[in-house]
Q: What sequence folds into this?
């Protein structure tokens, strides 16, 4: 009888067992190597992110300084620093950085705070000591003036002439630092610390619930190879180094990196828990353990599946990472784009690359109701004027559409697109994806449109992800121009003031084509009217004069350059028209019993702005002299 076939499974089992042993041994070796690589990677990443945080804090501090200098220049123009008008400007200013509010320290140790309220700071703040330091940032203080809490004060002198008349400071609330400054490090899993190297006080500590003192926490249990005294001395001496110690809060190892910061004697530090450091390593060990549970066929199948899975996951993670990088770049470019408008087009380019679009068009409702638009094209070619007109006409239809509460618009249907573009569909536009940009009150302040988007449904969410950054850009643009406008307008008359005049007057030589006229106007009898009837009467006179000048020569070319002096420029007006308008001004004001002296210098070819202005001024003085030579006008007493 033939013996049955015998399966020699022992050999397979031995091979399988040997394979398992080999994989197990390899797993231990590989795990050790992975742990070492992850630890090195963690230190490298902590080093990079601490450097990035240091740069961001310095950038925030510099931005704070710029804002304080701008406000200081505005405040120095006011004689009364507690005036309601001034504090309406200060309180309405929206800071873009670390500061939460502004206050002014006067030489008598009085502090003026929100709304023009005054607080006695004697025994708390010393103007002489603070002013002697000039521009500086304090270390951690308790805000005694406002009910406690830890703060920093960022001081800037307010200078008039050569004298420091007050100290403006921005209050930095240490318990409410900007989220975008402290979050996002190590994927949002790292703790951030800002330490005073002189005292050991925490200025920022996202790991503990309260701000304390690093020395008061006592010695820490260190991982092998690290020394607590070395950590302490390194922080005191302002060195950069790594350390691993046991957290008293959670009992796990913390990987900690510290370095000096070039502000005061501060140190910046970043820490991350051990389980985060070895998160990838632990995942790999789990996978290796799973491998041990399978025999040959199962192991190979699982391994092949894992290769496919890792490839897909890697592609998806890379896509997500690229998207995050795009969003970050857009935020970075738009952060100060209200001042650096050259950043806007690169930001739109990043958006275009993110959503795979041929063109990106951004429109915003500008300051004063004027709309502004920006456009980027993948072909790096500007659209022709006809296409730009079509797109803008479409934007107005979209503005109406989004103002009704709609959250997006997407279409590739020609009939639908024709309704959106009443002037005709722009050339080469196959589809449109648009989303509204809303302000903090939920009102539409801008529209972001992408043309020829590869996958509209998928990229709609990506387009919306940058709307907040664009909303902040719109807000910053309005705030920037509002402050700029306030610094260039005469408060009483609403005309441009001497600051604007000094900047713009000498540009008119390049603006005219046929002729240019300078009209120099002086109000007669203002001093007498103020003395006899009060300054309110004088103010009414100046407003009336300004109103007539603005009506005849427009708002953009008229200035109040002194107490009773006005200047206007007439571009490409013929001489008779200019003379007629000036006669109308005199006639209209005379009906109100107001009188002005006007000097006109009209020229076809202007050789010098200085000469044309001086000539007009000279003619004004001749007219004024003639006015007062009349017996009835001889410095008459106005009643």
A:
């Amino acid at each position: 009888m033939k013996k049955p076939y015998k399966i020699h499974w022992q050999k397979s089992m031995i091979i399988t067992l040997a394979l398992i042993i080999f994989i197990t041994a390899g797993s231990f070796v590989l795990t050790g190597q992975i742990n070492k690589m992850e630890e090195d990677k963690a230190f490298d990443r902590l080093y990079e992110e601490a450097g990035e945080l240091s740069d961001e804090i310095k950038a925030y501090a510099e931005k704070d300084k710029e804002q304080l200098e701008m406000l200081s220049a505005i405040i120095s123009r006011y004689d009364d620093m507690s005036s309601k008008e001034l504090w309406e400007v200060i309180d309405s200013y929206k800071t873009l950085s670390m500061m939460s509010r502004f206050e002014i320290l006067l030489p008598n140790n009085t502090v003026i705070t929100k709304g023009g309220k005054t607080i006695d700071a004697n025994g708390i703040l010393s103007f002489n000591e603070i002013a002697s330091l000039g521009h500086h940032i304090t270390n951690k203080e308790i805000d005694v003036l406002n009910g406690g809490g830890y703060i920093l004060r960022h001081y800037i002198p307010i200078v008039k002439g050569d004298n420091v008349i007050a100290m403006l400071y921005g209050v930095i609330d240490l318990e409410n630092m900007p989220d975008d400054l402290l979050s996002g490090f190590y994927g949002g899993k790292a703790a951030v610390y800002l330490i005073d190297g002189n005292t050991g006080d925490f200025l920022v500590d996202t790991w503990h619930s309260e701000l304390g003192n690093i020395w008061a926490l006592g010695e820490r249990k260190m991982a092998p190879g690290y020394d607590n005294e070395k950590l302490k001395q390194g922080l005191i001496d302002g060195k950069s180094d790594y350390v691993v110690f046991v957290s008293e809060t959670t009992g796990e190892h913390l990987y900690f990196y510290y370095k000096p910061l070039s502000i005061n004697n501060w140190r910046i530090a970043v820490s991350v828990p051990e389980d985060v450091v070895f998160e990838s390593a632990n995942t790999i060990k789990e996978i290796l353990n799973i491998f041990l549970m399978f025999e040959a066929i199962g192991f190979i199948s699982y391994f092949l599946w894992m290769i496919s899975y890792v490839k897909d996951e890697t592609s998806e993670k890379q896509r997500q990472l690229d998207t995050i990088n795009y969003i970050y770049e857009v935020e970075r470019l738009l952060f100060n784009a209200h001042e650096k408008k050259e950043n806007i087009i690169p930001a739109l380019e990043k958006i275009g690359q993110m959503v795979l679009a041929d063109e990106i068009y951004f429109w915003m409702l500008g300051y004063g109701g004027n709309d502004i638009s920006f456009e980027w094209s993948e072909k790096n070619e500007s659209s022709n004027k006809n296409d730009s007109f079509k797109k803008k006409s479409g934007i107005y239809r979209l503005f109406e559409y989004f103002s009704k509460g709609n959250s997006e618009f997407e279409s590739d249907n020609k009939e639908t697109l024709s309704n959106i573009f009443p002037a005709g569909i722009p050339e080469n536009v196959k589809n449109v994806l648009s989303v509204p940009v809303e302000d903090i009150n939920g009102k539409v302040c801008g529209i972001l449109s992408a043309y020829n988007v590869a996958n509209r449904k998928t990229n709609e969410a990506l387009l919306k992800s940058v709307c907040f950054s664009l909303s902040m850009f719109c807000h910053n643009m309005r705030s920037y121009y509002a402050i700029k406008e306030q610094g260039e307008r005469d408060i009483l008359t609403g005309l441009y003031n001497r600051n604007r005049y000094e900047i713009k007057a000498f540009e008119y030589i390049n603006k005219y084509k046929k002729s240019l006229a300078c009209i120099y106007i002086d109000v007669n009898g203002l001093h007498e009217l103020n003395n006899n009837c009060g300054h309110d009467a004088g103010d009414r006179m100046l407003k009336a004069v300004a109103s007539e000048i603005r009506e005849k020569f427009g708002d953009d070319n008229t200035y109040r350059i002194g107490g009773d002096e006005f200047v206007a420029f007439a571009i490409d007006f013929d001489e008779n028209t200019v003379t007629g308008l000036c006669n109308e001004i005199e006639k209209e004001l005379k009906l109100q019993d107001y009188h002005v002296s006007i000097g006109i210098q009209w020229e076809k070819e202007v050789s010098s702005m200085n000469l044309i202005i001086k000539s007009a001024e000279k003619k004004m003085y001749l007219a004024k002299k003639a006015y007062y030579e009349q017996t009835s006008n001889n410095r008459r007493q106005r009643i």
